[in-house]
Design a protein that fits this description.
heterodimer, A: 2 strands, B: alpha+beta, two-stranded antiparallel ribbon, 7 strands, 29% helix
Chain lengths: 507, 188
């Protein structure tokens, strides 16, 4: 007969069965994705690099198989907490395994630095600790940009939709990875539709970016590689670039413009892409999230342009417009590409522009996209809530106030909409405050601290120099946690913490 | 749980072997990040790239001289070309007429430390000709020292470790595929 403690133990272990099993499936998939950078390294005759990825793939296969064998295959439907826990743990385990080839490359000062860059890629942040980026191998550059692309797409859902067919709990993991748009009735089909859209853009986008690279003066093979890498980074709003100077390296207005188009597209809701592909072009005009994004982008860009117009830094309006618009939209979409040096933003562009950047980075892109930050729909809902309350106060008490909004279909604003939106905004703001405090505690100047805190919280990737291999190790760990939490939009991580702290059965 | 204990024990032993293999394979793996350009000290009248980038307003419009490694690609645009020149403190774009470039034989990449060049030209904090970029329009350019191959040698130990890990990974994948049965379909 089972004692109470043994019964509870059995219950706790039983609850981990789907978590370990599906985390193992994800790890096996990680092994598969290491094949492409190994192939690129082989094509580039970088024979010292190829075994790094094969070692990583081997560890992934072994680790994934062991996890699947540990408790066996799940027989019950996955619960919400199990789904969230699977996402949270999968991302952490994958970070460690994916850091192996990065660490083996010799371009990182420590395994922690390698983990930092991997998490930065997964979360499409773009902050880097890699050393000597301008001498990194083609295989490693392919790997870095792939991490960003796959992380932005939702690697857990991809792995499970492809490798665990008929997986009954996939919607819970889909939500756990920060997405909640059902494009199609089946969430598995939705995940595959997202991938279909993304792969279509990948092919077309790589061709266009490669042409832009050739136009900028790169050779055929180098142009193809750069086009592929920069496209993946732009679409995923990741911000990784193959060279230290980011997009400034190419010195090409055409190249900049193409990346601008792609990272704006990448920051839009996948549901919006699907709606346009399906012929519903009116959604572009009616969508509350896009309206909010356009309004905040336009407002912040206008303020920044007016602030800088009198500084005399850029001698022509066109150059001023090009620099400011690119950087601000890069911040607002949480991409992180740069066409100026970090020191210019802090020391040359002034405090008002700095504030615009911080606000833009915190507001972020769209929900169910590759972007971070509050997300446009929450900003829109917060604004609608404020307007609703003001109307309610202005109208007679007996008046029934209804506020409507359109987000792929019509809604009446309810308390649950406002509560959900404001909860996430509060959590992001709290995280931003913690990051700012930590930066200041580490000895960085206040302006730098706020900027970098906004960048890491919103998964942006713009940096003024705080993020570097010389950062204190505890600040690197904190940044890893913030990037992870922000990308998964808090809930999956909270479930993990709740499980660890309270050891409750997963039901 | 009891029936799976052998798998767990085997897994722990296997993992230990992997970690040992990984440690052995990484001996001597640190790639040098001290490029030849890092050892240069500015000559009289020269500045470093780091100084230029830290004081863009101060140097705006001035004739500057500096040395740095050519990295990446030479991007030819008609009669001119872009090249990016840097030191460990930063990299800056140099716009130079093509006739100044023939002596450049190596650019910095994974395989090579690039040629170190001496550049003299007009520095712009926001070049009106090039979209407001920070750049230098070169008037004189010469190769100070030629690039050299980077010390990167394939490691036999890593290839062996990779083979062993992949073999074990494939074996475990096959074992798990055979061992794990499809469950009864979950209730709707």
């Amino acid at each position: 007969m089972l004692t109470s403690s043994r019964r509870n133990t059995e219950g706790r272990w039983r609850g981990l069965v789907p978590v370990t099993y599906y985390s193992g499936v994800v790890l096996r998939w990680v092994a598969l994705i290491m094949v492409l950078p190994a192939l690129v390294a082989a094509l580039s005759a970088e024979w010292a690099v190829v075994p790094d990825f094969l070692i990583g793939a081997g560890i992934s296969l072994v680790g994934g198989s062991l996890l699947m064998l540990a408790y066996g295959r799940p027989t019950e439907r996955v619960t919400w907490s199990q789904g969230m826990l699977t996402v949270a743990i999968s991302w952490l385990i994958s970070m460690v395994v994916c850091a192996v080839p990065s660490w083996l490359s010799g371009n990182y000062g420590s395994f922690l630095d390698a983990c930092f860059d991997v998490m930065s890629g997964f979360t499409t942040t773009g902050l880097i600790l890699i050393r000597d980026l301008d001498h990194v191998s083609d295989g490693m550059n392919t790997w870095r940009h792939m991490l960003s692309y796959l992380g932005g797409q939702g690697m857990v859902v991809l792995a499970l939709s492809l490798l665990a067919r008929g997986f009954p709990g996939i919607f819970k993991l889909y939500v756990g990875e920060g997405k909640d748009e059902r494009l199609l009735p089946s969430v598995g089909r939705t995940a595959q539709a997202i991938w279909f859209i993304s792969l279509g853009y990948l092919i077309v986008g790589t061709i266009i970016m490669t042409a832009a690279a050739w136009f900028a003066g790169l050779g055929p093979y180098r142009g193809l590689l750069h086009g592929f890498w920069v496209y993946m980074s732009a679409w995923s709003t990741g911000g990784f670039a193959p060279q230290t100077q980011s997009i400034l390296y190419y010195h090409s207005g055409f190249f900049e413009s193409v990346t601008l188009v792609f990272f704006i597209l990448g920051s839009l809701n996948f549901g919006l892409h699907y709606a346009v592909w399906a012929g519903n072009r009116r959604e572009i005009v009616r969508n509350l999230e896009l309206q909010a994004f356009m309004f905040t982008s336009f407002t912040l860009t206008t303020v920044a342009l007016l602030a800088m117009r009198g500084m005399g830094i850029y001698h022509s309006g066109i150059n001023l417009f090009r620099k400011v618009v690119y950087q601000l939209v890069s911040a607002h979409t949480t991409t992180g590409f740069m066409t100026v040096y970090p020191s210019q933003i802090i020391w040359q562009w002034g405090s008002l522009v700095l504030v615009c950047f911080v606000i833009a980075m915190m507001l972020g892109g769209s929900a169910s996209s590759t972007a971070g930050g509050f997300k446009g729909i929450r900003v829109g809902l917060a604004a609608k809530t404020v307007l609703h309350e003001v109307r309610r106060l202005l109208l007679p008490e007996t008046a029934v106030v209804v506020t409507r909004f359109h987000f792929f279909r019509g809604f009446s604003l309810e308390d649950r909409h406002a509560r959900t939106a404001l909860l996430i905004i509060v959590l992001y703001t709290f995280t931003f405050s913690v990051a700012t405090l930590a930066n200041v505690a580490a000895g960085y100047p206040f302006a730098d601290s706020i900027f970098e805190a906004a960048s890491v919280t919103g998964n942006v990737g713009l940096t003024v120099g705080v993020t570097s291999p010389a950062m204190p190790w505890w600040l690197k760990v904190l940044y890893i946690g913030i990037m992870w939490v922000g990308r998964l939009e808090f809930m999956a991580v909270f479930v993990l913490l709740g499980y660890l702290l309270y050891r409750r059965r997963l039901t | 749980m009891t029936g799976r204990r052998p798998f767990v024990l085997f897994g722990i032993a296997a993992l230990a072997v992997f970690v040992i293999a990984l440690i052995v394979s990484t001996r001597g793996f640190l790639v040098s990040v001290n490029p030849p350009v890092a050892g240069l000290s500015p000559l009289p009248g020269e500045v470093t790239v780091s100084e230029l980038l830290a004081q863009v307003t101060h140097y705006d419009g001035q004739l500057v001289s500096f040395r740095g490694e050519v990295i990446g690609e030479l991007m030819r645009r008609g009669q001119y070309a872009w090249m990016n020149v840097g030191d460990p403190g930063g990299v800056i774009g140099v716009w130079a007429p093509s006739f100044l470039l023939p002596d450049i034989t190596h650019v910095g990449n994974y395989r090579f430390w690039g040629d170190i060049v001496s550049v003299e030209g007009i520095f712009s904090a926001a070049c009106p000709e090039h979209g407001g970029d920070v750049d230098v329009h070169a008037q004189r350019l010469s190769v100070y020292s030629s690039g050299v191959p980077r010390d990167i040698a394939p490691s036999v130990a890593r290839w062996i470790a990779a083979g062993a890990l992949l073999l074990l990974g494939v074996v475990l994948t096959l074992v798990s595929s055979r061992t794990l049965r499809d469950p009864a379909k979950p209730e709707p």
